[in-house]
Amino acid sequence: MTMQQRRSPDRGPKGRALDDVALADVRELLGHRERRRDLLIEFLHLIQDHYGCLSAAHLRALAEDMRLSQVEVYEVATFYDHFDIVKEGEARPAPLTIRVCESISCMLAGAERLFGELAGDADPQAIRVMRAPCMGRCATAPAARVGDREVDHATSHKLLAMATDGDIRTAAPDYVGLDAYRAAGGYQLLQKVRDGVLATNAIIEIMEHAGLRGLGGAGFPAGKKWSFVRGYPGPRLMSINGDEGEPGTFKDRVYLESDPHRTLEGALIAAYAVEAKRVYFYMRDEYPAVLAILRAEIAALEGAGIVKPGFIELRRGAGAYICGEESAMLESIEGKRGMPRHRPPYIAEVGLFGRPTLNHNVETLWWIRDIVEKGPEWFAAQGKPGHQGIRSWSVSGHVKEPGVKLAPAGVTVRELIEDYCGGMADGHEFKAYLPGGASGGILPASMGDIELDFGGELAKQGAFVGSHAVVVLSQADNIKDVTLNLMNFFKHESCGKCTPCREGTEKLVTLLKEKGVPNETAMRDLETVMRDSSICGLGQAAPNPVNHLLTHFRDDL
């Protein structure tokens, strides 16, 4: 038999056939937008928003229209939680989705009961009820979302009534718009910087003397970051990390829903300082009201001539906690799966699109105007002795008055509870606390007088403040249950890139679910491997709650 005879018959091109109707749909939706690879996620959002899902035919058509392989489009679409992939022959999702937050603060407030009531009462043909990770509304738990309407203190009756009435559209709260912000002196500082009245080196020096640090979790000094980025040859870029996904954290949402231009002016000053050619504002999809505000106010800045059209580019996340890690966020902005990069090189040298990139958290930028106008000494002096600056603490859990609390760096959780939150909620006694969200660990009330800041005694206890999310627990809470909630979150949010994190989080959940006392030897071994071998901070910090459960709360095992 010849080679030609052994070949299988030609069956035509492999993969899904192109649907001409679907291609026309996609082209009409995308319109005259430039078919850039980095806009893939934005285009997926357009299709998902319009059709309520991403059908196989539309994904194939999008790949054709963008000149991408089908696998490139599919692997990105399936990575993010907020995209619904529907293959041939599969049913489309119900026309309306209700998401119930199941993260730690909402768990304490009865989210599981709420989910059960909704699942029992909602018509599955009309309403899809889903569990969701932190929605950033921890102070008003339990939180939910009906369509694009965010709901505080959610009840099944309220949510189903809103669904019936069609009350499901985004509702932005009252906030300080551009005109009001400028009337109060806003953007005068930016103009002074642009006019050369305030030199770039002087601003960097002010930031360094003030002790302003990255307030998204890492705590890197802001002034030094500017200097590092400026030290690499241009063109340079800037990114703003608005992917506030750490359970218990909501301060950035509060600032952007009340006074967004403080962050925007700070961003423009920072961008000027490092000569960034463009600013990419990455905002989590869980904040529809913030996204609406930013779209409106960035357009207002362009209309007022404060920025050129397109200088600030708003990018919308799609439901992936890992994109809070700076390099994973840059991958997402580039239209890819949000997977952390190996370092070095660091993003200050090789960042977005391979260019030196300055990345800042929302709150870090929010403080810049006050620091420059009032002086670095003013800001630094706001901290307790040995600590610099004032911080925004997201406090939730069993306290009387949860919310964003402005308190000095170095404050203790006991002081936050008594002096800023009106004490413990009625019927609750202080038992334990999370000093830095899900990643920061769990400490007992006996350690409630540790000064909260980066490093120091807190670090010696294997904990950290991270994004300054404090969740207060009481005698009503079993710490093993709390730990299981946190580990389920990490298991779900692991990007899967590295084995220690992907397999370690899943195995820790399995061990915690076992009846009786967990296998401590296996858990300690997993903890060591995850800390030593994970690529990024998610896998390295995920074992913190388990460590503290085994160390401080053995009675709850």
Any chance you could write out the topology, listing elements then pairs?
Blueprint: H1 3-6, H2 20-30, H3 40-51, E1 54-55, H4 56-66, H5 70-77, E2 85-86, E3 96-101, H6 104-108, H7 111-121, E4 127-132, E5 144-146, E6 149-151, H8 156-165, H9 178-183, H10 188-195, H11 200-210, H12 222-230, E7 236-242, H13 251-256, H14 260-273, E8 276-283, H15 288-303, E9 312-316, H16 326-333, E10 357-361, H17 362-366, H18 368-374, H19 376-380, E11 390-397, E12 403-408, H20 413-420, E13 430-434, E14 443-444, H21 456-460, E15 469-474, H22 479-493, H23 499-513, H24 520-533, H25 537-541, H26 544-552
Parallel strand pairs: 1-2, 3-4, 7-8, 7-10, 8-9, 11-15
Antiparallel strand pairs: 3-5, 5-6, 11-12, 13-14, 13-15
Helix pairs in contact: 2-4, 3-4, 4-5, 10-14, 11-12, 22-23, 23-24, 24-26
Q: Can you tag this structure with a few keywords?
A:
557 residues; 15 strands; alpha/beta; 4-stranded mixed sheet
Short summary:
43% of the residues lie in helices and 13% in strands. The chain is of the alpha/beta class.
Q: What class do helices, strands and sheet pairing give?
A: alpha/beta
- Helix content bin: 40-55%
Secondary structure: number of strands: 15
Terminal Cα separation, in Å? 70 Å
State mean pLDDT (0 to 100 scale).
95
Strand order of the largest sheet: 12-11-15-13-14
Number of helices: 26
Low-confidence stretches: none
Percent of residues in β-strands: 5-15%
Instruction: State the oligomer.
Output: single chain
